[in-house]
Amino acid sequence: MWSEKYRPKKVEQLIGNEEARLAIATWLDGWEPGKKAALLLGPPGIGKTTFVTLLAQERGMNLVDLNASDVRTKDKLRSKMGEAMSTVSLFGERSLIFLDEVDGLAGRSDYGAVDFIKDSVKESQNPIVMAANDPDSDEIKKLASSCVAVRFRPPPPREVEMYLREIASKEGAAFGADELRAYVLDAAGDVRQAINLLQSRPLPEAGRGRYYKDRDSTDSEALNAFFSAETKEAAYAALRALSMSPFEKVREVHRSVVKSGLPPEELAKALEVVSRADVLIGGMMRGGDWRLLRYMDRLFVEELHPLLKGRAVRYTQEDLPFPIMTRIWNDSRKITDISLKFAARAKTSGKSARSEDLPYVFALCSKKQFREDLEHALGYDADKEVLESYDKFLHKEAAR
């Protein structure tokens, strides 16, 4: 199966959810006995299980992998998790306990399992990570107080399409752009399903796979509802309806404000509020305190909304300041690889790196020393052939 053949071997090869992955990695690096478990929330097929597996490998931890649907009772969980919770190696090495599909602890079959998990989190000598598909299930609500919850979302369709194109190239298969796009839409955010569709090459059913289109439309409507809201309550409700990550939200609000045509003095005040939201996110990244997220929307509502009210500010998905999408189509593999490596080094998101940072990085690559330093920082100089390929690419980008 291509979905297994091309399963990512490193965390950096995963598609999307850069901020969520960084939040979990930060939580794990700072975990100590007695601290909360981590809870990954999101639909199936977007990489939650693969991410936890690769994270454990990269941290040199033994992964204890359990499925809650298979061990639904307190006694079964104790027999599976008991030793793993209390065992630490002679050298202080810890295991990573992964309990998947905890929303499968459903109905009457949950004989004390949820309470056992909550108690285990407090007592375990090893970190516990859980994953769930349904964030609104009763089981998840019961576990909420014991967990640091991080939401994983379907990856951007353009990145999934680039991934499919790379797989098709490696398999020597020819696919048209419209055909690839149809598979992406039909899979509706499930990367495994997209790869399976690519391999089996079925004809997508008409009307299916409208997830991304609908989501993009909903986000656009929500942002514009925020800008046009008559009351703070309506503005807050609009922000809460967004499916964007905090980084995306700040970036898109910033872009809309910049293009708004506000008078200079008012524009400066609005951008100052946006910059403080950006600083807030930076603080969360450094300290790992994701509870601060609740204050970001309030900052926009209390300070930005009054400045924009009645100013006809609008959000559109076009007119990025840098024509990065054309470059993504033409040099998708290298752009994606560079952006993810750069994002990991710069502690930012891959999407932000592509659209905001790489334009300036590429411009600086006109200087040979900078280009060599960048290639070394991103690890391209470890292989002569890879180095030559990326050096040629960076030199070409600098000359644009």
Helix coverage percent? 55-70%
Q: Judging by the overall fold, what is the CATH architecture of the largest domain?
A: 3-Layer(aba) Sandwich
Please describe the biggest sheet, giving its number of strands, its sense, and whether it closes into a barrel: 5 strands, parallel
- The average pLDDT score comes to 78
By DSSP (H or I, 4+ residues per run), the number of helices equals 19
CATH fold naming of the largest domain: Rossmann fold
Task: Encode the helix/strand succession as letters.
Answer: HHEHEHEHEHEHHHHHHHHHHHHH
Number of domains: 4
Name the strands of the widest sheet in spatial order.
2-3-4-1-5
CATH superfamily of the largest domain: P-loop containing nucleotide triphosphate hydrolases
Number-wise, the strands total: 5
The geometry reads as globular
In the CATH scheme, the class of the largest domain would be: Alpha Beta
Percent of sequence in beta strands? 5-15%
Classification by helices and strands: alpha/beta
Roughly how many Å is the radius of gyration? 23 Å
Report how far apart the termini are: 40 Å
What does this structure look like?
It contains 19 helices and five strands. It is of the alpha/beta class. Strands 2-3-4-1-5 form a five-stranded parallel beta sheet, sandwiched between helices. Helix 4 runs parallel beside helix 5, helix 7 packs across helix 8 and helix 10 packs antiparallel against helix 11. It is globular, with a radius of gyration of 23 Å. The two termini are 40 Å apart.
